[in-house]
Design goal:
Structural class: alpha+beta
Strand order of the largest sheet: 2-8-7-6-3-5-4
Largest sheet: 7 strands, mixed
Helix content: 25-40%
CATH architecture of the domain at 32-196: 3-Layer(aba) Sandwich
CATH superfamily of the domain at 32-196: P-loop containing nucleotide triphosphate hydrolases
Oligomer: single chain
């Protein structure tokens, strides 16, 4: 059965995880003389402050309590400072170098600093607290997962950092969080996590949990040296289906389930097990604190502390078509949005009804001007209509088919498909061209991005080229008794390689110094093991995505004993070696702190992408 709450077992000792304010207060009082001390609680944006402040104040009885928000610039000044970077687009903005310090008024900061130098217990709480109390006696980091933050946006419980926009549309709050708040907070988090005294889990305001900083880092080290899963989350959508309801045993209280983020460490959480207790942290914390062990030297030098591979589910079983869309080319996403690589992707069919299909690439007879005209007309008409099949290829889709989608390729999954989407991680940059004249779940049309889309469509990716290069491009590689290996993609324009293993026995794998991401796409249950016993056997179930850190090295996968399944299969993704990326040097540590590749890396990657695009376009024209 699909496990919705996987965890990394760290210790059998429940007492390492403090539960509730009473236990938390006892632990804090035991670690320092609090009669004359400064306790700083740095909070990730999205933390709900009233219950946190009430709980910790009751636990510690401070003499003076201060909120970091009192030091913020006025909301109008914050808007003036960041408005141009955020843009007026309803979905997109620019990645930027903002820091939490940019939200603070230096004069107010100095005034507050002066007030915490006297006797007594001083408690300072909020996002930016550690920039005000720079040498606290106790430093606590209050953290929570981005999926939880999104739920708080939707409910109107919170707004964004430094502005009063709780009633604003949730999608606009998410945009601001994604492009501004979280980027600034992550830069501060990288500095603080190595020196925190305690990690406070604020995903459930009514059930706070806390562990020591030393136990937090020991847990991250343990996770980075064994296979593990992040906590998946599921969400409805206007095109959503019902396959995941059954296979993943989900509640029936939603109209459908369209998405599952099964391995998106920037968004997913990670559960750490201490006996029967669980600490929930952003999976991103593991990426930021253990990049070399988790990702491998090559990926860390190439991307910085950023997880470059994404696995997610797109369920249209009994639902509708996804939006017809295109992803930006590398040069475009960098010039317009400040991202250094783009969303190359693929669709792997976990399941498919007889009428399932994938829209992919353009028809041989495509007239770009006519398609643009038809899409513009559909976007402005009171009764919008667009004949997608007049312009776009429609391929039948069957279980275990694999469709490759390099950026610039028009595509979407059709109805009655269950897609495992394997892609690079800039997932927000999807330019919708046509949404089948339907409303979003909020009753309003979802935004289209025609100008962005038209600027990125590769018009020469037509039927013959697509069939040869992007549809079931499968190559046999190796075999031995009990298993065989195939390359299923991705295209030469994409930096992710995918391998499929069919097996009835034990399959040898090796990370080769780079993180592996896998999904059990056939079979009910399998076991991941270390030939040397470096980690305990790790069980996986059908459709579960799991991560094998680069540090693991050799590992094996085999069917569980007594399984009735005739043959099993995994799909594995990893970053191709040999890409002409330039390693980071000491002078490039700022790029790591910003979670983006260095400028030197970007230039080389862009040159490679432009060269690869030239080669691919030339090849496609030869096919035509």
């Amino acid at each position: 059965m699909y496990d919705k709450f996987p965890f990394v077992a760290v210790s059998s000792d429940d007492s390492l995880c403090k539960l509730g304010w009473s236990e938390i207060g006892t632990a804090l009082r035991a670690c320092a003389n609090l009669s004359n001390a400064v306790v700083c609680v740095e909070c990730y944006p999205g933390t709900i402050l009233p219950p946190l402040l009430s709980g910790i104040s009751t636990a510690l009885s401070p003499d003076h309590t201060l909120l970091a928000g009192a030091c913020y610039l006025a909301p109008t000044e914050i808007e003036s400072r960041f408005g141009a970077l955020l843009t007026t687009d309803p979905v997109f903005a620019r990645m930027n170098p903002a820091t939490i310090a940019d939200f603070l008024d230096p004069v107010k900061v100095e005034q507050v600093r002066a007030s915490i130098t006297g006797p007594g217990l001083h408690l300072i709480v909020g996002t930016g607290a550690s920039l005000i109390a720079t040498h606290p006696d106790i430093l606590i980091y209050a953290d929570l997962a981005r999926w939880e933050i999104q739920q708080r946006y939707r409910s109107g419980l919170i707004g964004n950092l430094g502005v009063d926009n709780r009633t604003e549309n949730a999608s606009l709050k998410y945009k601001r969080g994604y492009f501004l708040d979280w980027r600034a907070a992550d830069r501060l988090k990288i500095e603080l996590l190595p020196k925190i005294d305690f990690l406070l889990d604020c995903n459930r305001p009514d059930i706070p949990k806390m562990i020591r900083g030393t136990d937090f880092h020991a847990a991250l080290h343990a996770a980075a040296h064994r296979p593990f899963r992040v906590v998946p989350f599921f969400d409805p959508g206007p095109w959503g289906g019902h396959w995941m309801e059954t296979v993943c045993d989900l509640p029936r209280d939603k109209p459908n389930y369209a998405w599952c983020f099964d391995c998106v460490p920037e968004e997913n959480s990670l559960l750490l097990g201490f006996g029967a207790r669980r600490i929930e942290i952003p999976a991103l914390d593991l990426v930021l604190m253990q990049p070399r062990a988790l990702l491998g030297e090559f990926i860390e030098r190439t991307f910085g502390a950023e997880f470059p591979i994404r696995f997610d589910f797109l369920d249209t079983m009994g639902g509708g078509n996804l939006s017809l869309q295109v992803h930006p080319l590398t040069a475009y996403i960098r010039a317009h949005f400040g991202m250094n690589y783009t969303q190359d992707e693929s669709y792997y069919l976990l399941d498919a009804a007889p009428d399932a299909c994938v829209y992919l690439g353009l028809r041989e007879s495509i007239n770009p001007a006519a398609m643009i005209s038809d899409l513009r007309a559909a976007s402005t008409s009171a009764l919008p209509q667009f004949d997608a099949e007049k312009h776009v290829n429609k391929f039948p889709a069957r279980k275990h088919d694999h469709f490759l989608i390099p950026a610039g390729t028009v595509h979407c999954s059709g109805r009655n498909s269950m897609v495992l989407e394997i892609s690079a991680t800039p997932y927000i940059f999807t330019f919708k061209l046509w949404d089948w004249a339907r409303m979003g779940l909020d009753g309003s049309p979802r935004p289209l991005h025609l100008d962005h889309g038209f600027a990125n469509i590769c018009w020469d990716r037509r039927t013959a080229w697509v069939q040869k290069n992007l549809v079931n491009h499968i190559e046999s590689l190796d075999s031995a008794p009990g298993w065989r290996e195939e390359r299923t993609g991705l295209h030469a324009l994409e930096f992710i390689e995918t391998r499929r293993h069919w097996f009835t026995g034990t399959v040898p794998h090796y990370t080769h110094g780079t993180v592996n991401v896998l999904n059990l796409v056939e079979g009910d249950e399998a076991v991941v093991e270390s030939p040397s016993g470096a980690f305990a056997p790790f069980e996986i179930h059908y459709a579960e995505t799991f991560i094998v850190p680069a540090s693991v090295g050799p590992y094996t996968i085999r069917p569980c004993a007594n399984s009735p399944q005739a043959e099993f299969a995994t799909i594995k993704a990893f970053v191709r070696s040999g890409f002409p990326f330039e390693p980071h040097t000491d002078s490039n540590q700022l790029a790591r702190a910003a979670c983006i590749p260095s400028p030197q890396t970007t230039r080389l990657y862009r040159r490679f992408q432009l060269f690869a695009a030239f080669v691919a376009c030339a090849a496609s024209k030869m096919q035509l």
